[in-house]
Amino acid sequence: MKRFLITWILSAIALIITAFLVKGIVLKGAFAIIVTPLILGIINATIRPVLFWLTLPLNILTLGLFTLVLNGLCLLLVDFLGPPGFRVRGLVSATVGALVLSTVSWLLGFFIKDPESA
Residue 86 burial by CB count (10 A; 0-12/13-18/19+): exposed, middle or buried? Predict the structure, then answer.
């Protein structure tokens, strides 16, 4: 449970930083900050792997660069399914936002160690 809460908080912080850095992503209100990382986690755990396997030939053809677009499409899906306080304006903003979100999440996870794994 502790690991889930740490991951959830780090995802929320990464999402706030991403919304601050990427102009096409809007995040308003505490409800959106709390719910959006949950929806993003569910989509990344369930729908993204299926989409990845379905687009594998295109991914191989583009030497893996289509993964960026796939991550952007998942972020657009979060916009569609998510709370009213979270908006993504277009595929370019979603793709750039997914790249920034992944980078910020990785950095936060790298610098903030999980107490259970130490």
Answer: buried
Distance between CA atoms of residues 87 and 67, nearest Å: 21
CA atoms of 112 and 22, how far apart (whole Å): 23
| CA–CA gap between residue 100 and residue 22 (Å, rounded) | 8
Query: Is-contact 40 48, C-beta < 8 A?
Result: no
Contact call for residues 83 and 31 (beta carbons, < 8 A): yes
pLDDT in tens, 47-93: 999 999 999 999 999 999 999 999 999 999 999 999 999 999 999 99
For residue 95, give both structure tokens. Answer: 């793709």
Look up tokens 């160690």; give the residue. 113
Domain extents for the chain? 2-111
- Indicate the angle between helix axes 91-111 and 66-81, nearest 10 degrees: 100
Query: pLDDT digit string (tens) for 2-15?
Result: 888 888 999 999 99
